[in-house]
Amino acid sequence: MIRTLLIANRGEIACRVARTARAMGMRTVAVFSEADADAVHVRACDEAWPIGPAPATESYLRADVILDVARRAKADAVHPGYGFLSENAGFARSCEEAGIVFVGPPSSAIDAMGSKAGAKALMAAAGVPLVPGYHGEDQSPECLAEEARKIGFPVLLKASAGGGGKGMRVVAAESELAAGIEGAAREGMASFGDGRLIVEKYLQRPRHVEVQVFADRHGNTLHLFERDCSAQRRHQKILEEAPAPGLDPALRQAMGEAAVAAARAVGYVGAGTVEFILDESGSFHFMEMNTRLQVEHPVTELITGLDLVDWQLRVAAGEPLPLRQGDLVIRGHAAEVRLYAEDPARDFLPQTGPLIRLRFPEGEGIRVDSGVEEGGAVTVHYDPMIAKIIAHGRDRTEALARLAMALGRVEVVGVTTNAGFLKRLVEHPEVVAGAIDTGFVGREIGTLAPSGESVPADILALAGLAEMLTLDAGAKAAAARTGDPRSPWARADGWRLNDTAHHDLVFMDGAAEVPVRMTFEGAAWTAAIGDSRMCLTGRLGADGALESRIDGVRRAATIVRDGDRRSVFTDGRGWSVRLHDPLAEIGDAAEESGRLVAPMPAKVVRVAVEVGAVVARGTLLMLLEAMKMEHSITAPVDGVVERIAVEPGDLVEEGAELVVFATAAAEAVAS
Q1: What tens digit of pLDDT does each residue of 524-563 get?
Q2: Residue 88 main-chain phi, psi, to 5 deg
Q3: Which of 16, 283, 443, 645 is the most core-located residue (most Cβ within 10 A)?
Q4: 367 and 228 in one domain?
């Protein structure tokens, strides 16, 4: 029996486990880093213990510290969530030796599947189909290169101990091989402490289909059907669906049976996922096994009506699985997306900052799992996922429609998110048709994440109307405090003696200035934006709710003010502009063209040039790491490196100076 459960994780999974465990009558214990002292998961548990500084390597990845807390808190079991120590065989083994139940598979199963190379050998012996590749012990660059040539390009390099897309490189030609091996090994070492690689044939236009498995300690193993995770970027999942579209019953059964065979081959216990590549011919091949609960498990819960965390805890307590394979049926369709603090138009750069406003959708068939709240923040220390948005429907059409509608109701202010990108994704005709492969997002990125989109005139008009209504409310409140509240000087409609009543506003749409003249005419405002003229009326309510009419057409919106930033949410989209005072003193001159700054908070991994180096446009200057993904900083123009402001290992904030170099144009002027 589990009386006290320690949750060795953070974020939405820690909150989810806490809710389920408490509903089962368990006492729950949270752990938290210095950065998470006020986090939601801390308050979700009965008690919480500090475990160290913000970096995960000094807190959530400290198995010894977490085990010490488990002993002192008298915990019977530890739930590792997903990420951090969830697939750490050493941690699972330490729990076993300490007499504490590890809510997951035995350490031997994690060991067996922890090495991609070793796992593939086991799967081959169990008769599970594999992708052609090299999984050997010789890790010399020469051997890896030779094996890649034997397999034939393109090949996929994968960190042997990896997951989540980290430590993976697609190499299309031999000229890219050396850099690919170096980069994949370095990222594997940084993310998992293991730089070993495997080499596989890179299949063209494959689908990524995974099977949820569950096993107990009584010899029962079953599968809970499959999920399609083909919508990916950088090998990281974006959209997950259950069941997989277009899978015939025979193929579903074959994949399920192969997944069960894989789990049995390693003596698996608990929740796990067996991942397959499905090629264009309909053949499937084993990729890897994730020996933990997956981020996308809610879609499986919604189509089966089961609580997988409840099952995890019952199996960990020694109970048998409550159902058999024949008892399981698929009910409807479910789809999930991951709402991230990232900028899709800037190559999905992670974003950090305060969550000034955070509103999630509600409604039939909608589920939101989140571990953050309004007033909190997304920091550089952890994964920038804000929430999982999940929709369930009677069929796939209804589920995707509900998901698109839900995404249109997300309101986040303070950080840039991928909400608009996700909505375009689930509404894309090819996604709706269920005909995408793992390369789809890369091919359609220009459509899914358009750059340089201008803010429409009607959005600027709504922002202008909100400004006028805010000014009017403020003026009336101030006038009410005076002895003459009816004075014309207390009016905020732009009234002037012998002149037209108007206000001139300037909104910044990126770097572009957009003048907006708001003119008061009787009972309405006219917004003049370029050649456009719109007649507006409206009422601004609490929390920024704007009820308006534009040229007689009713329009509901929400306007959020944050300093000079104005966020407008309407018609299922969000727009952000800055209110600019053209009379204000302009600050420092624009940055010189040869000064490069950090685009995000990051760690400097490698500096590729020296002072005095002559560089051409596109030359790699340095590599930065943020959220365990590498980002290349390249020269924007031809020039000569004058100063390097950082060294490998440095932690830099967004906007910190990295490199200064003299451009060719500047040198020509100087000479």
Answers
A1: 999 999 999 999 999 999 889 999 999 999 999 999 998 8
A2: -95, 105
A3: 16
A4: yes
As separate numbers, helices (DSSP H) first and strands (DSSP E) second, the chain gives: 18, 39
Q: Coil, helix or strand for 310?
A: helix
Name the residue with tokens 């989540």: 164
Claim to verify: residue 548 and residue 462 sit in the same structural domain:
yes
Q: Cα separation of 608 and 602, whole Å?
A: 16
Residues 424, 476, single domain; the answer is no
CA distances from 171 to 36, 181, 184, 404 (A): 39, 9, 11, 35
pTM beyond 0.85, yes or no: no
* 146 and 10 share one domain: no
Angle at 216 between CA 213 and CA 217, to 5 degrees: 145
Judge if 284 and 417 occupy the same domain: yes
* Number of domains, the chain: 5
The answer to whether residue 395 is domain-embedded is yes
Distant-in-sequence, close-in-space partners of 253: CB < 8 Å, separation ≥ 6: none
Instruction: Assess if residue 41 is contained within a domain.
Output: yes
Please state, in angstroms and rounded to a whole number, the distance separating the CA atoms of residues 363 and 408. Answer: 13
Whether 292 is catalytic is yes
Given 292, 367, 424, 566, which residue is catalytic?
292
Report the CATH number at residue 172.
3.30.1490.20
Contact 117, 144 (CB under 8 A): no
Q: Are 183 and 247 in contact (CB under 8 A)?
A: no
Helix (H, G, I), strand (E, B) or coil at 645: coil
Order of strands, edge to edge, in the sheet holding 657-663?
595-597, 657-663, 639-644, 614-615
Which single residue is written with the structure tokens 């986040």?
412
Give kind and range of the element (H or E) at residue 20.
helix 11-23
Q: Look at residue 114 and tell me if it is in a domain.
A: no
**Burial of 175 by CB count in 10 Å (0-12 exposed, 13-18 middle, 19+ buried)?**
exposed
**Interatomic CA distance for residues 582 and 600, integer angstroms:** 29
- Interval 275-293 mean pLDDT: 92
| Sequence-distant (≥ 6) Cβ neighbours of residue 238 within 8 angstroms | 231, 232, 337, 338, 422, 425, 441
Q: Which of 557, 580, 603 is the last residue of a domain?
A: 580
* pLDDT tens figures, 210-253: 999 999 999 999 999 999 999 998 888 999 999 999 999 999 99
Which of these, 425, 438, 263, 200, lies nearest to 335 by C-alpha position? 425
Range of the domain at 433: 207-448
- Report CA Rg, the chain: 28
CA of residue 374 relative to chain centroid, distance: 18
Q: 160: Cβ–Cβ under 8 A, 6 or more apart, which residues? A: 115, 116, 117, 135, 188, 194, 196, 197, 198
Verify that 275 and 353 share a domain, yes or no.
Answer: yes
Residue 56: DSSP 8-state: G
Residues 217 and 308 in one domain: yes
